[in-house]
Amino acid sequence: MYIVPFIKEAQEPVGPKISKYWLLLERNGTHLIEMEKGKEGQAAIEAAAEYMNINDVQLHGQPWISGPYVFVEVCAKDKELANFYSWKEVAPSSHPLKEVWRMFLFVCDKDGDYLGLNTLLGNIMIGESKSDTVLSVLTAAIQGPSSCTRRESP
After folding, report:
1. CA-CA distance, 103 to 110, in Å (whole number)?
2. Domain residue limits at 104
3. Using H for helix, E for strand and C for coil, what is the string for the chain?
4. CB-CB neighbours of 22 under 10 Å
5. For residue range 104-117, what is the model confidence (pLDDT) as tens digits?
6. Residue 67 to residues 71, 79, 122, 149: CA-CA distances in angstroms?
7. 4: closest CA among 134, 121, 147?
8. Residue pLDDT, tens place only, 63-107
9. 8 Å CB contact between 104 and 134
């Protein structure tokens, strides 16, 4: 399973029906954050929340699971986010490898992806499986926890 911290910017869309999303990725922004083996269900949700707590990142709601992903929506106004690198600050080949926030534009239009942006996102691999693309991850994040497992508040 993967932990997928993400931010959907609350400001106006970038363009007609285009939204900006940020994903926290490891390996200098090229890979989803892998979770410790054996974590499933509630244990995976708790591990994702603990991961964000260790990094002093404020959550916006509770984590939820969709497929192999544990989504963690992050509060965009959290001042601790400045402690992370952004994708453009880290060269792909730099060492040690870092976790970085990487921005993606997503077309949210019922009439289709008129610019071809989502098609490009479908070609960006960020996991071990061919189905682990930016498009599949963002699509699951956008659909939200309504049909997924969500942790109840204590």
Report:
1. 22
2. 2-150
3. CEEEEEEECCCCCCECCEEEEEEEEECCCCECEECCCCCCHHHHHHHHHHHHHHCCCCECCCCEEECCEEEEEECCCCHHHHHCEEHHHCCCCCCCCCCEEEEEEEECCCCCCCCCHHHHHCCCECCCCCCCEHHHHHHHHHHHHHHCEECCCC
4. 21
5. 988 887 777 777 88
6. 10, 30, 17, 10
7. 134
8. 999 999 999 998 877 666 666 766 667 777 777 788 888 989 888
9. yes
Query: What's the whole-number average pLDDT of the chain?
Result: 82
How many domains are there within the chain? 1
**Which pTM does this prediction carry?**
0.82
The letter for the amino acid at 81 is L
Is residue 87 within 8 A of residue 95, CB to CB? The reply is no
Exposure letters 52-84 (e unless 16+ CB within 10 A, then b) = beeeebebeebbbbbebbbbbbbeeebeebeeb
On whether the CB atoms of residues 6 and 73 are closer than 8 A, the answer is yes
